[in-house]
């Protein structure tokens, strides 16, 4: 959230005139908020502008308040480019998880950004300032668990995050964590009320074990190794959790309050782009505020919305398509597979032709 006392003041064309010497409050020191603060400081330093006073507020104090998860920073979605622009890639490389991609587990990422923002039941600020906005339930229940230390990560997971679907409409996503551990997420179509019922049930250790041995084992039957091993090695001392993947299309902001990251557009985990969108949000908002072409805060925010809205909408719609694919069955699943096969074939031919022309 960005605040400024005199929104419509007539300002000169100098770079950074909207922020120089001002006070900015960032409510939520997650990825988007932290990326914005770091970006603004860096841009001010590069352009010789007096930096604003930036106050970051974060509700979580406990290091493990948000559990275990991993983040994927991707070049095709702009996240990696933001880290390069901010000079943070080298600092983060030593925390990179196994595999060919750029995956970072929460326990290593949090010391660098204080606290990482992941989708929660709702943004209190958004609920207070934009009560008419609600997230859309996407029809899927996702059960999450994690293993204890394994002797060695299975090759499918050691190579990076592992995604697989089944003919029964159940999806599975596994990512590596610290100390040779793995986190798994099993998802299936279900009514929205199921997750709340399961989380209440999971408070009882015996109920957790029973659910793992019956429901999870049954739904995971179509999956080959390493799933059976991961299921056997699941450490229930970490608990089980049930969540409803949901999202919300971005809204246009009204200065002087600006929503970025999950506060503006909660992403469903099947998009694989939440962290990337948050990083790009932070940098792009800082760039617009520093652009001398904008004489008022409203103009800068409007330009930011013009840039971020289409980008985020594309990512959200891609996530919804992924949900439809991961939980399809029968002819619908076959149709998805054929379309993806043909698309991949076309991309390969284009790359081959481009190589010949070179």
Mind explaining what this structure looks like?
The chain has helices at residues 31-47, 79-85, 89-93, 106-113, 124-129, 155-158, 194-201, 205-219, 227-232, 274-290, 297-326, 330-357; strands spanning 23-27, 53-57, 70-72, 103-105, 136-137, 140-146, 162-165, 171-176, 182-189, 241-243, 246-247. The chain has 358 residues and is of the alpha+beta class. The protein has two domains: 23-130 and 247-322, 3-Layer(bba) Sandwich (FAD/NAD(P)-binding domain), CATH 3.50.50.60; 139-243, D-Amino Acid Oxidase, Chain A, domain 2, CATH 3.30.9. A five-stranded antiparallel beta sheet has the order 7-8-9-6-10. The chain has a two-stranded parallel sheet with strand order 1-2. Strands 3-4 form a two-stranded antiparallel ribbon. Helix 2 (79-85) crosses helix 10 and helix 10 packs antiparallel against helix 11 (297-326).
Number of strands: 11
Strand content: 5-15%
CATH fold-type name of the largest domain: FAD/NAD(P)-binding domain
What's the helix-strand series?
EHEEHHEHHEEHEEEHHHEEHHH
Distance separating the two termini = 48 Å
| Strand order within the widest beta sheet | 7-8-9-6-10
**Mean pLDDT rating:** 83
- SSE-based structural type: alpha+beta
Q: Just name the CATH architecture of the largest domain.
A: 3-Layer(bba) Sandwich
CATH class of the largest domain, named: Alpha Beta
> How would you sum up the major sheet?
5 strands, antiparallel
Counting DSSP H or I runs of 4 or more residues, the number of helices is: 12
How many domains? The number is 2
What do we call the CATH homologous superfamily of the largest domain? FAD/NAD(P)-binding domain
Helical content class: 40-55%
Overall radius of gyration: 22 Å
Unreliable stretches (pLDDT < 50, length at least 5) are: 3-12, 63-68, 106-122
Overall geometric form: globular
């Amino acid at each position: 959230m960005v605040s400024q006392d005199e929104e419509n003041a007539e300002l000169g064309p100098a770079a950074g005139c909207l922020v120089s010497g001002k006070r900015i409050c960032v409510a939520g020191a997650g990825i988007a908020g932290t990326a914005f603060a770091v970006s603004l400081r860096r841009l001010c330093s590069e352009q010789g502008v007096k930096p604003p006073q930036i106050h970051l507020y974060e509700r979580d104090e406990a290091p493990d308040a948000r559990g275990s998860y991993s983040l994927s920073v991707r070049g095709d979605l702009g996240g990696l480019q933001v880290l390069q622009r901010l000079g943070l890639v080298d600092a983060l490389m030593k925390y990179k998880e196994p595999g060919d991609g750029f995956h970072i587990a929460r326990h290593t990422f949090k010391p660098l950004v204080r606290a990482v923002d992941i989708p929660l039941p709702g943004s209190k600020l958004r609920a207070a300032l934009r009560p008419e906005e609600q997230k859309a339930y996407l029809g899927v229940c996702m059960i999450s668990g994690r293993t204890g230390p394994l002797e060695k990560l299975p090759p499918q997971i050691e190579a990076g995050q592992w995604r697989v679907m089944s003919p029964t409409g159940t999806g599975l996503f596994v990512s590596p964590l610290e100390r040779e551990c793995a986190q798994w997420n099993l998802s299936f179509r279900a009514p929205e009320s199921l997750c709340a019922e399961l989380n209440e049930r999971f408070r009882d250790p015996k109920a957790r074990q029973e659910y793992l041995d019956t429901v999870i084992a049954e739904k995971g039957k179509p999956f080959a190794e390493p799933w059976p091993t991961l299921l056997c090695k699941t450490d229930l001392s970490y608990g089980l959790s049930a969540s409803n993947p949901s999202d919300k299309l971005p809204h246009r902001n009204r200065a002087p309050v600006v929503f970025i990251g999950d506060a503006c557009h909660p992403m469903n985990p099947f998009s694989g782009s939440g962290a990337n969108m948050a990083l790009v949000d932070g940098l792009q908002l800082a760039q617009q505020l520093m652009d001398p072409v904008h004489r008022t805060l409203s103009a800068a925010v409007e330009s930011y919305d013009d840039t971020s809205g289409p980008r985020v909408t594309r990512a959200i719609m891609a996530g919804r398509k992924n949900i439809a694919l991961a939980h399809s069955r029968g002819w619908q699943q076959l149709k998805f597979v054929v379309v993806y096969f043909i698309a991949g074939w076309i991309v390969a031919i284009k790359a081959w032709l481009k190589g010949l022309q070179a």
